[in-house]
Write a structure and sequence with these properties.
5-stranded mixed beta sheet; alpha/beta; 3-stranded mixed beta sheet; Spore Coat Polysaccharide Biosynthesis Protein SpsA, Chain A; metal-binding; glucose-1-phosphate thymidylyltransferase activity; Nucleotide-diphossugar_trans; transferase; 290 residues
């Protein structure tokens, strides 16, 4: 069974001073902590066993907020990344947790939203071999890992923050790997900035002919909260959609309830301490809406 890794490390230096004393993944994106969004995304993919990797100082705060996940019908464990040694290091840290099985790695500051997203995630999660990544059209590809395609739509290469991007397709922070990922990650050499780059790991699969790239269409939103502007835009986006529809985005309690991971009584208990904020009232409303 595929297990999930939520990488919530890093210093968040581009958000200083907001993140000088607290992890950015603990900051709110509109009405819920940022970390709720990636966890909900993995849940929608059908993943119920997760490992959250964070800085040692932040671990007690994450544990206090998220506990062991059983309140949402999932299993949540924790591990430390002492230094920001790169995204690919998460596969090495998680090797024992994965126990030789496939994984899904999501970055703690990446938000996904879309009508067909759950179907796409579950289909991707069911892919047993190789690695699967996504491509998303952006106006500023030079800020991301960029996927270059041939005339037939096949991925040719992936470049990390190229000065002259060969396409506008960025690779979002959600990756599905087979059981070989941890071994491959240990074979990667540090980049010039001293990190184990996720692009190098993905390119390893590409060179083996085992990389699957799926394009996220216009009906899907991918939000990166790495800068103050991006953070504000994400909050505004979530606020606008939720107010317009009256439905919450990536609410783990609702996802758990919809998937049958928790029952009516458990949902009521989760709602009780949240009634004053209105969040609890929304959860109780799920019981009547069905």
């Amino acid at each position: 069974m595929r297990k999930g890794i939520v990488l919530a490390g890093g210093t968040g230096s581009r958000l200083f001073p907001m993140t000088q004393v607290v992890s950015k993944q603990l900051l709110p994106v509109y009405d819920k902590p940022m970390i709720y969004y990636p966890i909900s995304t993995l849940m929608q993919a059908g993943i119920t066993e997760m490992l959250l990797i964070c800085r040692p100082d932040d671990l007690p705060l994450f544990r206090a907020l998220l506990q062991d996940g059983t309140q949402w019908g999932i299993s949540l464990q924790y591990a430390e990344q002492a230094q920001p040694n790169g995204l690919a290091e998460a596969l090495i840290i998680a090797e024992e947790f994965l126990d030789g099985g496939p994984s899904a790695l999501i970055l703690g500051d990446n938000l996904f939203y879309g009508d067909s997203l759950t179907w796409l995630l579950t289909q991707t999660c069911a892919t047993e071999t190789g690695a699967s990544v996504f491509a998303y059209h952006v106006s500023n590809p030079q800020d991301y890992g960029v996927i270059n395609f041939d005339d037939c739509g096949r991925a040719l290469s992936i470049e990390e923050k190229p000065v002259k991007p060969q396409s506008n397709y960025a690779m979002p922070g959600l990756y599905f790997f087979d059981k070989l990922a941890s071994d491959f990650a240990k074979q990667i050499s540090p980049s010039e900035r001293g990190e184990l780059e996720i692009v190098d790991l993905v390119n390893r699969y590409l060179s083996c002919g085992d990389l699957h790239v799926k394009i996220l269409g216009r009906g899907t939103a991918w939000l990166d909260t790495g800068t103050p502007d991006a953070f504000a835009e994400a909050t505004q986006f979530i606020s606008a959609i939720e107010k317009r529809q009256g439905l919450k985005i990536n609410c783990p309690e609702e996802v758990a309830y919809r998937l049958g991971l928790i029952d009516d009584a458990q949902l009521r208990e989760l709602a009780k301490p949240l009634l004053n904020s209105g969040y609890g009232e929304y959860l109780l409303g799920l019981l009547s809406r069905g």
